[in-house]
Amino acid sequence: MSHVVMLEAAALARLEDGALWQLGESLMDPLMDASNRRDYAGHIRDFSARARDVMSADYFHSVVELSQTERGRFADRERLNLLRRPGAVVFTWRQRFTGTPGEYLAEMVLISENGRARVDHVMVI
Predict the structure, then answer these.
(1) pLDDT in tens, 14-28
(2) C-alpha of 90 from chain center
């Protein structure tokens, strides 16, 4: 089943916070799960064209190897904030890992590309 959500850019700007969080998490959850499983195709499934160009399979595997070695797998995540920009929404979460204590910041930028909700940037710092 595809998780691609049809969404025009103007509609993205009109969504209420609750609907945005639901949309953002419906894209972030499978992305993080795919990362935990080292599944490149699953990880980039909902990426924008720009993000796909940046995240090669080799780069993905090297980042996941380093992250899982140092911190373990992605664990629970708590909502922090969302920011609205022209044509985009930025989500931030408090992120935890299985192999190390502490809290990290997970961030995702959501855009509408060709009428579909797409992840244009994602990182954990």
Answers:
(1) 899 999 999 999 999
(2) 10
Ranges under pLDDT 50 in the chain: 1-4
Q: Give the Cα separation of 64 and 62 in Å (integer).
A: 6
Give the DSSP letter string of the chain. Answer: -----B--HHHHHH--HHHHHHHHHHHHHHHHHHHHTT-HHHHHTTB-HHHHHH--HHHHHHHHHHHHHHH-SEEEEEEEEEEEETTEEEEEEEEEESSS-S-EEEEEEEEEETTEEEEEEEEE-
pLDDT for 51-66, tens place per residue?
Answer: 999 999 999 999 999 9
Distance CA 93, CA 32 (A): 12
- Partners of 6 in the beta sheet? 116
- With beta carbons less than 8 A apart as the criterion, state whether 119 and 46 touch: yes
What's the whole-model pTM score? 0.88
**Structure tokens belonging to residue 39:** 């599944």
